[in-house]
Amino acid sequence: MKDGISGKLIYRKNYTDYPWNVDHLEIYFDIGSENTTVRAEMEFLLKDTTKTSQDIVLNGVDLQLLSLSLNGDLLSSADYAVEGETLTIPNAPASSVIKTEVRIHPANNSALEGLYLSGTFLLTQCEAQGFRKITWFPDRPDVMTTYRVTLEADKSEFPILLSNGNQKGSGDLAGGRHWVCWEDPFPKPSYLFALVAGDLALLEDHFTTRSGRDVVLRIYVEAENLDRCEHAMESLINAMRWDEERFNLEYDLDIYHIVATNDFNMGAMENKSLNIFNSKYVLARPDTATDADYQGIEGVIGHEYFHNWTGNRVTCRDWFELTLKEGLTVFRDEEFSADMQSRAVKRIRVIRDLRSRQFPEDDGPMSHPIRPDHYVEINNFYTATVYQKGATIIRMYHTLLGEAGFQKGMKLYFERHDGQAVTCDDFLAAMADANDVNLDRFGRWYSQSGTPQVHISDHYDAATQEYTLTLEQTTPATHDQKNKQALVIPFAVGLLAADGRELPLQLKTGQDAVKGTRLLLMEEKHQEYTFINIPELPVPSLFRDYSAPVKIFYPYTPEQLATLITHDSDAFVKWDAAQRMAQSAILEQCQRHAKGLAMRLDESLLKAFRGILSDRSADPALLAEAMNLPDEDYLAEQMEVVDVDGIHAARRFIKEGLASELKVLFAERYAELNDGQPYRKSSRAMARRALKNVCLSYLLDTETGESLGAAQLKSSDNMTDTLAAIQGLVLIDSALAGTALSDFESEWRADPLVMDKWFIMQAIKPGLGTLNKVRELMQHEAFSIQNPNKVRSLLGVFSMLNPTGFHAADGSGYAFHADRVIELDGLNPQMAARMASAFNRWKRYDEDRKALMKTQLQRIAAVKNLSGDVSEIVNNALR
Ligand code: BES
Ligand code: ZN
Questions:
Q1: Minimal CA–CA distance to 719: which of 286, 281, 225, 231?
Q2: Residues lining ligand 2 (ion), CB within 5 A?
Q3: How many CB atoms lie within 10 A of CB 213?
Q4: Exposed, middle or buried, 595 (CB in 10 Å: 0-12/13-18/19+)?
Q5: In the structure, what pLDDT confidence band is assigned to residue 3 with cuts at 50, 70 and 90?
Q6: pLDDT recorded at residue 870
Q7: Which of 125, 149, 634, 765 is the most exposed place for a label (fewest CB within 10 A)?
Q8: Residue 678: other Cβ atoms inside 10 A
């Protein structure tokens, strides 16, 4: 039985060291889709040399045990105990060689964890606890072992046989079979083990590391995808070079493999030298992938590559420490993308994502610190909190210590811990010691959940020319934690004169005047900062570059926001000012809508948009971000009780109003950007497409929109423009949408990744008709509930990105979705749990919807043999 099924909470404080060293694992696979036989041999050496014997505890799930021996003696079932996920050999001698033989059934594995089948090839996914579905082993990250893997299979069915490390030998066998042997010289935890067996094509390239090591790079894909690997390869090479230049980290083996699969629960996996990727993050051609896809590929390829040092060479002591590798590696991939593309644009997208996904999580039933204290199912803790908030905590070290200080800390971290399984405390200690600073208080960010709020007020004294900012921090109680402490909050601030000039900042408490941004450190609940020689009432530019992951409260006037939008030097502050203005306009109309009053468009927003649209000097991608209105979910978070229909109506009203008032400017800018140049992949070209398509999305709400959309669709030579046009036509309910969708379908019906986009365009359409559409699409030949990408595209999008559809007042969306969660749970509990979290915010809605959602949660909770994965999510939600 799984830990989760028994619903058992596992606590961080209960960590105990594994009593044995397992230095080496010899593992042999006789591979077949229906049956695979696994033979393993490992030597257990007792760490405590004063003892002569100790129990050996191994983990295993769904393994058919064929034989088990200890130091050469076959054990009978009386010699060991199997209970739940563990097998215990009592009182094993201090030096024990264990041999096991098990059988597993990859073709029946629909959970996509362990060894499973994708199309015609077999592959593994072991993080977090999938290795125990392959063989009996101490499946925990602090047991680090070298592996020698021998794979044997039918040569025509499985011509390619891959595992971690270097190839050590291969040969043919009787009966059309063959074998390949792989050896990984670096000790690793079992979660980084991987194997792939099948008929795959490859793209090969090379990278020479700084010290002159020649590394062979291979990307393996199904043969028909071979012409879509170039961008991934280029991204990999860029990532390898970047990590040398920025972090002084070099690759450590002669080989680096990436395998793409259509069947993957996550984005990608960093198995040592054998990364396995969701094909979404590998395959791209201009006609099949959007600019966002290209950027996603670059980021994820970078992310998994960067894990080689932050994750693999230094790994986590236990799964509570997950953010040690994930938060840090997300920070590294963000920096990589920022260095490769536009830093400001990347930063804004990261912040948008944090606020719209992590903030609600931190305020909901799954609230947890970036280092959780307990879990039922670890797979439920690969969260926006551990990842995205975790990365912002790493970014704060960087802000506090500077690039040089941060790199000193990284260097010490690797000097101390290379080859070890460590904790977030070890990381903090390395940063503190390398810089000779005390970071103890900063460490509270690891243990406190919830989003801090910083309330700011100011006072200007014209007589003394002093300006005082008063900051008050509070973190509201969360579902998991009542009492909150003050946190260390880096506060980057600037002051603007009314004409937009940056004022020199000089604190009353000393220090020289600095022009531009001043980094202050808030350490107490309440703090005041007084600046001197301030000639006029300034506009405060707060939390520049979003220097801390907090909710910022300051009563900006529309004039102040306008000053920031036009003049501030900081891209985040500019963007945030535009978002604030849009947000208050929308929320105000939402209130009017609720009171039955006519909605109206405010002049200040119009003026700001006019300015943005006329800006010919700023990066077009930044302008696009500024004009992307806050999404409905983010707006919902700002309301006491979510008014689903009101938010939708108000946002539409504002968008249509802006479109109609500014149609001349939108059309002008659109025409400029729609220059008929052939597709290019450069970041400049992507930025221009981003702004062009934002303009189109507004223009679609005007009389000329439909024909512009149709023309763009007709002339498009890339997926970004094609999708923007079709999605636009669908959203305005154009008569042309039907044909556009069906043409798209006939062109791409055999292409799973492009069909995902086709499902998304339909599932996202607001309104009550979409549920039936989704039901109908589930019957489409390209849909399969067994495929995570399809589930995300259709069911994930409908439940999480289509508020008016999902929250239909009659509860039909809820009932439908609950049925899907239940159906999925029998197939793929991890995916089912992710889908179940669509109900997490149920308490934030009106009484009727609350009751309807609660009923569905209870219905799910009552399902017999519900997985621990889903049970943890729904029971938390109900609690
Ligand atoms: N280690 C994870 C992948 C993973 C986690 C696989 C849990 C299976 C279970 C990997 O490094 C990762 O973090 N992938 C992210 C993408 C990344 C760019 C944030 C993912 O898969 O979403
Ligand atoms: Zn990762």
A1: 286
A2: 326, 329
A3: 13
A4: exposed
A5: very low
A6: 98
A7: 634
A8: 8
Which of 71, 106, 67 minimizes the C-alpha distance to 87?
67
pLDDT 10s digits, 702-753: 999 999 999 999 999 999 999 999 999 999 999 999 999 999 999 999 999 9
Alpha helical stretches, state H, 341-389: 343-353, 359-362, 384
By CB neighbour count within 10 A (0-12 exposed, 13-18 middle, 19+ buried), where does 485 fall?
A: exposed
Could you tell me which residues come within 8 angstroms of residue 642 by beta carbon, excluding any fewer than 6 positions away? 636, 841, 844, 845, 846
- The secondary structure of the chain in percent helix, strand, coil, rounded to multiples of 5, reads 45, 25, 30
Q: What tokens does 620 get?
A: 């077009």
For residue 359, the one-letter residue type is: F
Question: Cα 852 from chain centroid?
Answer: 30
Judged against a pLDDT cut of 70, whether residue 520 lies above it is answered with yes
Q: Which two tokens stand for residue 694?
A: 């934002």
Q: Of 572, 513, 575, 578, nearest to 547 (Cα)?
A: 572
Task: Tell me which H or E stretch contains 504.
Answer: strand 504-505
Residue nearest to atom 20 of ligand 1 (CA): 267
Rounded to the nearest whole angstrom, what is the distance from the C-alpha of residue 303 to the centroid of ligand 1? 9
Give CA 511 to chain center in angstroms. 41
741: Cβ contacts below 8 Å, ≥ 6 apart: 726, 730, 758, 761, 762
Which of 101, 304, 326, 335 is flagged as catalytic?
304
How far is Cα 314 from Cα 307, in angstroms, rounded to an integer?
Answer: 9
| Known catalytic residue at 745 | no
Most informative mutation of 193, 258, 261, 269 for ligand 1 (most atoms within 8 A of CB): 269
What is the residue with the minimal CA distance to atom 9 of ligand 1?
A: 127
Average pLDDT over residues 120-140: 98
Residue with tokens 């493999």: 257
Query: Which DSSP letter does residue 478 get?
Result: B
CA of 382 to the centre of ligand 2 (A): 9
825: CB partners within 8 A, 6+ apart: 832, 863, 866, 867, 869, 870
Any ligand 1 atom below 6 A from CB of 58: no
pLDDT of residue 564: 98
Instruction: Please tell me the least confidently modeled range out of 6-15, 28-37, 154-163, 295-304.
Output: 6-15
| Residue 2 confidence (pLDDT) | 40
DSSP string covering 96-145: EEEEEEEEE-GGG--S-SEEEEETTEEEEE-TTTTGGGTS-B--STT--E
The span from the CA of 858 to the CA of 849, in Å, is 14
* Rounded Cα–Cα distance for residues 276 and 257 (Å): 8
Cβ(869) to ligand 1 under 6 A?
no
The beta strands (E) that lie in 155-239 are given as 160-163, 166-173, 177-188, 195-198, 201-208, 214-221
- Give, for 760, the enclosing helix (H) or strand (E): helix 752-763
SS (H, E, C) 249-294: CCCCCCEEEEEEECCCCCCEECCCCEEEEEHHHCCCCCCCCCHHHH
Terminal Cα distance for the chain, rounded: 24
Q: Please, what's the b/e burial string for 354-392 (b: 16 or more CB within 10 A of its CB; e: otherwise)?
A: bbbbbbbbbbbbbbbbbbbbebbbbbbbbbbbbbbbbbb
CA distance 20 to 95: 9
Nearest to 742 by CA among 768, 721, 762: 762
pLDDT band at 487 (very low <50, low <70, confident <90, very high): very high
> Which class for 211: exposed (0-12), middle (13-18), buried (19 or more C-beta within 10 A)?
exposed
Does residue 364 register a pLDDT over 90?
yes
Length of the chain, in residues: 879
Question: Looking at ligand 1, which residue's alpha carbon is closest to its atom 16?
Answer: 267
